[in-house]
Design a protein that fits this description.
11 helices; about 10% strand; Arginase, Chain A; eight-stranded parallel β-sheet; about 400 residues
């Protein structure tokens, strides 16, 4: 059995908001080129399968009919609908918008089905992770919410509990909203403080509603948070709440826009720290969910020196063939990356030296703004889950 499956079709590059838009398909193109240059598709533990567009029936599980009709009109007549986020600066119209966005959803949902049925242990869709899309509106470069659709499919197939871990610099608001009152789904988002970054949400006191109170978890970090601090924040919250939830499946979003070179956020989380978090999420899946893990892409706008490195690493991690820290990147890939982007690409995959981070169990500093942010989340949500915010 293949341990991992990567959903990919060249048509995913057609999700293209046009020249000058941050979400350039170049980031996916260079990612797939690096994956091939590293020989990952030849691994016996990885298979690559086509991503087909999701049906309207699948899309209706997380989006309403009026919105689907608006996207269809936008795809053909290029008719803006600003009330539904279509034709805005963030989400300009382009021909075929419906099909290309539906393909992102189809890739993630098909992987979720394969993971649940035991065909694979892990699924990866680097073109997925469109976590801002709302039930009735596009938002933040996201037309359809593949992450929410994949989680809903898992529930429909019989999963009792799903944990969603979002490591994007931006709050995973669309996924959180979809399951705000559903106690079966734990949503955990580690992101830059919404007072300083789109979408302006995701505060420690946002914990879900009704029977789901305590199943929305938000770690809202100050601008400038660096890799060691970010890993400390992830360590302080994510494992404890995910373990308490006891998920049947883990779905994770690995937007890599928390990097210091990213033009759209103000965190400073390097490639090495992001790769470390991938390892942690993978380990949690094996510890808690029988290995059932669906990993998605997301944001990431440093299209040469960050996105391909982080997502190629994610694919390799899922295939149980992790890439060596600090390894030289293939010369042929670097040449293509330079030609395509006119940006000098990185020479190595991060640093060979591990990130020196301090575990939360070693104590926290109330004078440190990152520690204060973390403790605010722990105090808001841990008691609702029967956990002690002051101790591991």
């Amino acid at each position: 059995m293949h341990r991992a499956r990567l959903a990919w079709s060249p048509e995913l590059l057609e999700y293209d908001f046009g020249p000058g838009h941050p979400m350039s398909p170049v980031r996916l193109d260079l990612t797939m080129r690096l994956i091939r240059a590293l020989g990952l598709p030849d691994l016996p533990t990885l298979e690559v399968v086509a991503a087909e567009p999701a049906s309207d029936a699948t899309l209706r599980t997380v989006h309403d009919d009026v919105y689907l009709a608006a996207v269809a009109r936008a795809s053909t007549a290029l008719e803006p609908d600003p009330l539904r986020g279509l034709g805005t600066e963030d989400d300009p119209l382009f021909p075929g918008m419906h099909d290309s966005a539906a393909r992102q959803v189809g890739g993630s949902v098909s992987l979720a089905e394969a993971v649940w049925r035991g065909e694979i242990d892990h699924g990866v869709n680097v073109a997925g992770g469109m976590h801002h899309a709302q039930r009735g509106a596009a938002s933040g470069f996201c037309v359809y919410n593949d992450a929410a659709a994949a989680i809903q499919r898992l529930l429909d197939l019989g999963a009792d509990r799903v944990a969603y871990i979002d490591l994007d610099a931006h709050h995973g608001d669309g996924v959180e909203a979809a399951f705000w009152e559903d106690p079966r789904v734990l949503t955990v988002s580690v992101h830059q403080d919404g007072r300083t970054l789109f979408p302006g949400t995701g505060y420690p006191g946002d914990v879900g509603a009704g029977r789901a109170e305590g199943t929305a978890v938000n770690v809202s970090l100050p601008p400038g948070t660096h890799g060691a601090e970010w890993l400390r924040a992830v360590d302080a919250v994510v494992p404890a709440v995910v373990r308490e939830h006891r998920p049947d499946v883990i779905v994770s979003q690995h937007g890599c826009d928390a990097h210091g070179n990213d033009p759209l956020s103000h965190l400073d989380v390097g490639v090495d720290a992001q790769r470390t978090a991938q390892v942690w999420v993978h380990a949690l899946a094996h510890e808690l969910s029988g290995g059932r893990w669906l990993a998605l892409g997301g944001g990431g706008y440093a299209v040469v020196d960050v996105v391909p490195l982080v997502w190629a690493s994610l694919v390799a991690e899922a295939a149980h063939a992790p890439l060596a820290a600090g390894m030289p990147l293939p010369a042929d890939w670097r040449a293509v990356a330079l030609e395509v982007s006119e940006i000098e690409p990185a020479r190595t995959l991060g640093s060979a030296e591990p990130v020196a981070w301090r575990p939360w169990k070693d104590g926290w500093d109330p004078a440190d703004p990152v520690d204060r942010a973390v403790q605010a989340t722990r105090k808001a949500v841990f008691p609702l889950l029967g956990l002690d915010p002051h101790h591991d």
